[in-house]
Amino acid sequence: MLPEMGLNTFVSYGSHLTEAIVKAGIDGLITNGYRDAGYVTYVIDDGWTYPCPSNVDAFFSLELGHAGRAVDGTILVDTNRFPGATGTDTLKYLVDYIHARGLKAGIYMEAGPACTPGSMTGSGGHEQQDINTVASWGVDSIKFDQLGVDEDYYARLNQYCLDSGRKMYLQSGAGGVGRPFGTWIPDYLNAWRPVPYFPDDPTGPENGDMHPPWTNFMAHVDSFIRDAQFIGPGHVPDGDDAATAGGDPQCVRAIMTMWAMYSVTMHITGSQATSYEKEWLTNSEVIAIDQDAAVLPARICR
Hints:
This protein is α/β, with parallel strands linked by helices. The protein contains 11 helices and 8 strands. It has an 8-stranded parallel barrel. The longest helix has 13 residues, at 19-31. The two termini are 30 Å apart.
């Protein structure tokens, strides 16, 4: 299994997703040449369910107070923003839309039962039910966001995916899981966020979400070097978003080069980019290194 390549919606839209945004992004992957370059997984990130009861974001004024789950516990799709789900309460229609265009479908889930303001209904206590639900839609990849869970939790998530009857790529969205690095992580995750995430300082220079400045880039590279012995087919670091460089052309080039050297997942933040960004994001020689079947990370030789 190779490192996942695709588009993730979160950096560009946060939890403010709509059906129109998703469809435009899917079509943009094709028309702008990213699908043919290898970015074949479209990840619908935060914002497809009804918001948490504590939500204070005015964007969701129509949804506040709506139950996030049916009586039987099934997670519900926000039909105000995804009208195609009306009558079915599923995103299968969008998954089918993705598959019909030669792409794979990814989905985001929250581990907590209650989420931060502005975020979505969590899967805490409903993990197996929710995994079975998205598997029934035909989802190919799950990004499971969490903080502070352990080996037993990931062992159960992995088993739920296996028991669902659908082969799905499983990655952890929150940073620094199992620190100090647990040798068990590659046994249960196809990709993991290697840099710790600090909720009190989300834009800190060494925080887990990829963002400017260069200190953040180097924190990621240092983590790849540290964890290189665990990288291999079917278990690689999740480098967050490859194009999150704050408009710095040198940073885009550096990210693509180092991510490829360490066989890291590659996700773009949108299907629109500057000509320089696109030149590097679709560079076939760099992508070939990242997607080499051996999935061998670079090694430091002294």
